[in-house]
Amino acid sequence: MFKKLVCLDKAIDILKSNASPITDVEVVCLRDALGRVLAEDIIAGVDIPPFDRAAMDGYAIIAEDTIGASVENPRILKVVGESDIGRPYRGRVLRGEAVYVHTGSVIPEGADAVVPVEYTKLDGVLLYVYASVASNDNISRRGEDVRR
User: Fold this and answer.
1) In 100-116, which positions are buried (b, 16+ CB within 10 angstroms) versus exposed (e)?
2) How does pLDDT run across 77-132, given as a tens digit for each residue?
3) Span 53-140: which CATH code?
């Protein structure tokens, strides 16, 4: 049932004596590429995502504005706009401000975190934030999946 253990150098020798480089190249459709080895490097021409984007529905804010936020001691911010898919907010988020963001929408300039909608309550333009977030929380950064 158990195989005999060998030292690392012996294992490398066994691998080298039983493996050979792949020299044949063929072009196949992507759907047939599973389990194959690339013949050459693929170079990404763009960053994916192409911009900093919201990882969830919530409010783009400056994380420092939420320090110490709790249910008993909410931080109150002013909602100044919305960033929707295909219609990003064009302004800059300043201290004390928030911009509503949809999952996948552009993070407005100045914001460094997203507080999830579940930890907030909106009353007109006033946003009550009941949990603190850290810088970069709930943001997918430009090039995070694939870097150009």
Assistant:
1) bbbebbbbbeebbbbbb
2) 999 999 999 999 999 999 999 999 999 999 999 999 999 999 999 999 999 999 99
3) 2.170.190.11
Distance CA 6, CA 14 (A): 10
* pTM for the whole structure: 0.75
Residue 77 is encoded by which pair of tokens? 């911010």
Q: How far is CA 7 from CA 11, 12, 15, 119, in A?
A: 6, 9, 12, 55
CA separation for the pair 146, 49 (Å, rounded): 7
> What phi, psi does 10 have (nearest 5°)?
-65, -40
What are the Cα distances from residue 115, in Å, to 98, 105, 137?
A: 9, 14, 8
DSSP states of 11-23 as a string?
HHHHHHHH-----
146: three-class secondary structure by DSSP: strand
